[in-house]
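SURF1-like protein
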Amino acid sequence: MYRFLLSRQWVILTLVALLLIPTMIRLGIWQMHRYEERTARNQLVADALSAEPVPVEKLTSPGHSVTSAERYHTVTAKGHFDTDDEVVVRRRTNSDDEVGYHVLTPFVLDDGKVLLVNRGWIPSDGPSQTAFPTIPAPPKGEITVTGRLMPAETTAASGIKNLKGLPDRQVMLINSEQEARRLGAEVLGGYVVLTTPEPKNDTPQLLGRPGDENAALNYAYAIQWWLFAAGVPLGWVILVRRERRERAEAEAAAREAQESPETEPAAV
């Protein structure tokens, strides 16, 4: 009755089904791991953003690598901006996906150390990518700034190539070690995305808060893969039963044709 399962076609179909089931189960497990990772990151970001601001030197120091637990934490610093050594970071976009620059201004603390402050986004000055753009000046004199602490950018983490031979006062990455060599000063590890004081006339544009990663999508994908895995044997059984039924009907029709009397030819 089920001898057809030994045919080449059905052997291949059965082997494919047996391979698909564990593959789909593994894919579901991988998506669930991604869901857990993203949920944990979202919670880490939420905790950092909601924490009370602390002086920046409590979390970072020269040569320090900002950790994932320290990232996005709100910090404060007291000192003054050094616009003479200000640079712009190339090929950065705003919320409308317009390409421009991030303004990176050294902030000299009261103890002489330097904190890199990303003051926000500005548009390019026309088609030229070589001239230093016009940048609104920050507040003068001693002030207190507040911002979100970020790790130094690297090519490995960001995918951005650290190109050489750039126009004067332009960089590709916000890297505290690189800036320490350029400035010849003690630069705190990482950098700060400015939140206050807010710029006049909204320029540079302050960078928005980080959004949550869509962890729910990974959860839905995991359930979907597991449903597919459960559907494979069900589909296999349905196909087997249909094949068995069609073969039985064909055999019954063949027997009926053999058992029915042959029609005699009409007399002339």
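thats it. The chain has two domains: 3-41+216-253, 54-202. The first helix runs from residue 8 to 50. bye
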